Amino acid sequence: METWFYIVESIDGDYANLKRTDIESDDLKLVARALLPENIAVGTRLKYELMQYSVVE
Question: Distance between CA 55 and CA 37 in Å, rounded?
């Protein structure tokens, strides 16, 4: 299974825009906030692994 790292670029209502940080990319991924940890904010670093997002401390 692969692991990807993101940072929350913006939050718009029920969705968040995530930017990959483990590769060079300017693309944003729109993700429903229901799939993300509750305590996210702009600038939160996330790890996506095994079809789940978790906050990176």
Answer: 7
